[in-house]
Amino acid sequence: MVLERKHFGVLFPAIFYFAAAFYNLFFVVYDLGLAHIYVLAALCVASAVGILLTKRWGLWLSLVLFPIIVASAASTLYYSINIMVGETMIAVLVFNISLVLYMVFSAFSFLLLLDKRREFK
Fold first, then answer.
1. DSSP string covering the chain, please?
2. For the chain, what are the domain ranges?
3. What burial letters (b/e) apply to 36-57, b meaning 16+ CB within 10 Å?
4. How many CB atoms lie within 10 A of CB 95?
5. Rounded Cα gap, residues 15 and 26, in angstroms
6. Cα(45)–Cα(15) distance, rounded to whole angstroms?
7. pLDDT, tens only, 70-89
8. In this structure, are residues 37 and 27 in contact, taking their beta carbons and an 8 Å threshold?
9. In angstroms, what CA-CA distances link 78 with 54, 81, 103, 121?
10. Cα separation of 19 and 13, whole Å?
11. Can you give the pTM of this predicted structure?
12. Is the pLDDT reported for residue 2 higher than 60?
């Protein structure tokens, strides 16, 4: 099985990129005009598969996705902070916390992949 011999430094980023794809698709349900989020989710899935297979292209794709994920999450967070109003304040706060966690886990995955880059063929 593919998962039996994987180290934490390879397994965690793969799981993160699968989760990131679902996270992105969850919020696209509310606005179908966000086609770039569909592309980002598809690239996250492709990156996760490449990381699980320890392919060099999966490593490079995830390294390219890191600044894109951080930029999109940071811009969304910046916009979201400016619209906190009324009774939806708790929902917006939870969303903002999820964006911060998304960026933190993205950075952690990036660092783990940099550390394990020699394992990729």
1. -TTTT--HHHHHHHHHHHHHHHHHHHHHTT-TT-HHHHHHHHHHHHHHHHHHTT-HHHHHHHHHHHHHHHHHHHHHHHHHHTT--GGGHHHHHHHHHHHHHHHHHHHHHHHHHHHTGGG--
2. 8-119
3. ebeebbebbbbbbbbbbebeee
4. 15
5. 17
6. 10
7. 999 999 899 888 776 666 77
8. yes
9. 35, 5, 13, 38
10. 10
11. 0.85
12. no
34: left (phi over 0), alpha (psi -120 to 50) or beta: beta
User: Which tokens go with 93?
Assistant: 């706060």
What 54-59 contacts at long range (C-beta under 8 Å, 24+ apart), as own/partner pairs, is: 54/6, 54/10, 54/119, 54/120, 54/121, 55/120, 55/121, 56/120, 56/121, 58/120, 59/113, 59/117, 59/120
